[in-house]
Design goal:
Elements (H helix, E strand, L loop, with lengths): L13 H13 L3 H13 L4 H21 L5 H22 L8 E7 L7 H12 L2 E5 L6 H11 L3 E5 L8 H11 L7 E5 L5 H7 L3 E2 L3 H21 L1
Parallel strand pairs: 1-2, 1-3, 3-4, 4-5
Helix pairs in contact: 1-2, 1-3, 2-4, 3-4, 4-5, 5-9, 6-7
The protein binds cobalamin (B12).
């Protein structure tokens, strides 16, 4: 009986609402997630806190149960769609800093890999920090990365991989850049749950970034170093 009662999201306090949003994300309830995001924003929550505490934390629970065989692809897809709907509301708010453009990034998920939530998040946060972001999507062969870097005259290349089977492809991209003599023209940042610092070093990336906030900070550091170097002639 009790669980058939409808929960009125707006009547929950912040803590209960966030927990309820974790459940709703788990259940792939897109409209409820959108409503929850709006309520938290109306209550004065910073968009970044809504993103990390309500959405990303909820997705972590989904990830654990997917790993343990409790959830399967269809359910995770629904959760991902709900997450994306929430992110869509936050995107303009995160990007709304009006900061002067500090640099340009091309970002994409590597060949064989269709995970894009983390990549999208990094793109959003980079835009919010004043970077121009060109998102080339998922399942990118090396040619796509090279073409986009040249076409966009980007400063930074960002590559994402969520599978242990697709992460080695990042090295293919970096090796191709080396062969073409263009590797040193770009700052290469890599990320995705199965990666780590050693892997980033081993494939010749400039940095591995654990999450979107680290990606922003790392990109800023590299860009300012690049400017200092140019200024020093
Ligand atoms: C959602 C999800 C899916 C969704 C993807 C929907 C979408 N549109 O993205 C669907 C259902 C489609 C899916 C499919 C599959 N998935 Co999946 N998926 C996940 C899950 C649960 C969450 C990923 C996610 O979105 N996390 C939330 C975001 C915010 O985190 P993130 O991606 O890590 O990103 C952050 C950082 O890593 C970093 N970052 C990410 N990218 C980048 C890039 C740059 C440049 C930088 C700087 C930083 C950075 O910043 C981000 C933000 O802070 C993970 C579990 C997990 N633990 O990761 C499994 C997981 C990645 N999937 C897994 C698997 C096995 C699969 C499938 C093979 C399942 C199957 N049998 O078909 C397929 C593969 C499809 C393919 N070819 O790609 C495994 C991978 C295991 C492995 N060792 O390789 C995982 C780990 C689950 C598990 N434990 O078994 N999946």
């Amino acid at each position: 009986m009790a669980d058939e009662e409808e929960i009125i999201l707006s009547e929950l306090d912040d803590e209960e609402l966030v927990l309820q949003m974790h459940d709703d994300l788990y259940d792939g309830l897109k409209e409820e997630i959108e409503e929850g995001v709006r309520i938290l924003l109306d209550r004065g929550w910073a968009p970044y806190d809504v993103l990390t505490k309500a959405l990303v934390a909820g997705m972590t629970i989904v990830g654990a149960d997917f790993r343990d065989g409790i959830l399967f692809v269809p359910e995770v897809l629904l959760a991902a769609n709900a997450m994306k709907a929430g992110m869509a509301i936050l995107k303009p708010l995160l990007a709304e800093t009006g900061a002067p453009k500090v640099g340009k990034m091309v970002i994409g998920t590597v060949k064989g890999d269709i995970h894009d939530i983390g990549k999208n998040l990094v793109g959003m946060m980079m835009e919010g920090a004043g970077f121009e972001v060109v998102d080339i999507g998922i399942n990118n062969p090396v040619e796509n990365y090279i073409a986009a870097l040249e076409r966009e005259e980007a400063d930074i290349l960002g590559m994402s991989a969520l599978l242990t089977t697709t992460m080695p492809y990042m090295k293919v991209v970096i090796d191709t850049m080396k062969e073409k003599g263009m590797r040193d023209d770009y700052i290469v940042l890599v990320g995705g749950a199965p990666l780590n610092e050693e892997f980033g070093k081993a494939i010749g990336a400039d940095a591995y970034c654990r999450d979107a906030a680290v990606a922003v900070q790392t990109a800023k550091d590299f860009i300012s170093r690049k400017h200092n170097k140019l200024a020093a002639g």
